[in-house]
Design goal:
This protein is of the alpha/beta class. Helices cover 27% and strands 25% of the residues. It folds into two domains: 201 residues, Quinone Oxidoreductase, Chain A, domain 1 (Alpha-Beta Complex); 139 residues, Rossmann fold. Strands 3, 4, 5, 8, 9, 16 and 17 form a seven-stranded mixed β-sheet that branches. A six-stranded parallel β-sheet has the order 12-11-10-13-14-15, with helices on both faces. It is globular and about 60 Å long. The mean pLDDT is 95. The chain binds zinc ion (ZN) (2 copies). The site of one zinc ion has 8 residues, from helix 2.
């Protein structure tokens, strides 16, 4: 099969023919139709993800496609099924999985990091009966590609962890893929969304996706403007980026007893250590909430909202590329260039 292979951090991926994946009794092989390019792929490529322990590795974790082969123990899927692949691969038996929180499984493994992912024409998914999601017929592969990571991460962050309510004010810091997804989902849930970024063209796109107000934090003090627009502060604020400035500003945008949800993964140079205003948090009783991926039981509700048109993940896709163009797209992410989401749909 053709694949884009990571052979060393910060080096161009090598697009070449590699061995086809081997089918295991509990696995399936999927012919991929679309794979999104996510900020986490960039983190993996740049060496920020401890999950990558060896080379060569095939990155890519936002896949959708058609089941081509099933292992002899597979009961829930058959050849020809349309599927999407959640990136957080769980064991199904630890206490968190049993409680329905597969996204924080004790034996979590990440597709495209711990094992080979979707920057390839085909992928093998082990333990597939419980780690694949069937795609309804009227959701196309482009819509589905974002639902393995960015879109589902934003859904869990806004709906479950953020517990958004109609009429609430929601600030979203960062309008990359996960930020745009959060804006669309919060708006669909009836919230008023304020998008914050440093690029005007990204903020324009955020308005198209559902933001009622935008702030360019290069030109204005974002927390102050959020407080003015909302007359006192946001009920819910999202850091979709994971850097010191956006995390701090997100917390400072909240009204008393507001909720900050951390969705953006922190990377070097801070290595995951960010400073927070502890006395403000104490005095206002704001909550700091983590959010990672999405557990499997939340998929049906999200898919239903996509099926009935209330959510349109495909609307965030601004660029469709071939596997051969992947290095250009990765380099664009070095400087946070480009608006919207890039998806590979030619392998
Ligand atoms: Zn588990
Ligand atoms: Zn991702």
């Amino acid at each position: 099969m053709r694949a884009a292979v990571l052979e060393g951090f910060n080096q161009p991926l090598i697009v070449k023919e590699v061995d086809d994946p081997t089918l295991t009794p509990d696995g399936v092989i999927i012919k991929l139709e679309a794979t999104g390019l996510c900020r986490s792929d960039w983190h993996g490529w740049a060496g920020h993800m401890s999950a990558i322990q060896s080379f060569p590795r095939i990155l890519g974790h936002e896949m959708s496609g058609i089941v081509e082969e099933v292992g002899k123990n597979i009961r829930n899927f058959k050849k020809g099924d349309r599927v999407l692949v959640p990136f957080n691969h769980s064991d199904g038996i630890c206490p968190h999985c049993v409680a329905g929180h597969h996204n924080i499984c004790d034996n979590l493994s990440l597709v495209g990091f711990h094992f080979n992912g979707g920057f390839a024409s085909h992928i093998h998914i082990p333990e597939a009966d419980r780690n694949l999601v069937r795609l309804p017929d009227n959701i196309d592969f482009l819509d589905a590609s974002a639902m393995g990571c960015r879109f589902m991460t934003a859904y869990h962050g806004i709906i479950t962890q953020g517990n958004v309510r109609p009429g609430e004010w929601v600030a979203v810091y960062g309008t990359g893929g996960v930020g745009l997804s959060a804006i669309q989902i919060a708006a669909a849930a009836g919230a008023n969304v304020i998008a914050v970024d440093i690029a005007d063209e990204k903020l324009e796109f955020a308005k198209e996706v559902g933001a009622v107000a935008v702030i360019n934090s290069k030109k204005e003090k974002a927390p102050q403007i959020v407080r003015e627009v909302t007359k006192g502060g946001a009920n819910l604020s999202i850091d979709a980026l994971g850097i010191q400035e956006t995390c701090l500003n997100s917390v400072l945008s909240l009204k008393k007893r507001g909720r900050h949800v951390q969705i953006g993964l922190s990377s070097t140079p801070n290595g995951g250590l960010l400073q927070l205003p502890i006395n403000f948090i104490l005095a206002t009783e704001v909550q700091i909430i983590g959010s990672v991926g999405m557990p499997l039981p939340e998929y049906p509700a999200m898919l239903q909202m996509v099926e009935n048109g209330r959510l349109s993940p495909g609307k965030l896709v601004t660029k469709k590329i071939s596997l051969d163009e992947i290095n250009i797209a990765l380099e664009d992410m070095n400087n946070y260039a480009g608006v919207g989401v890039t998806v590979i749909n030619q392998f």
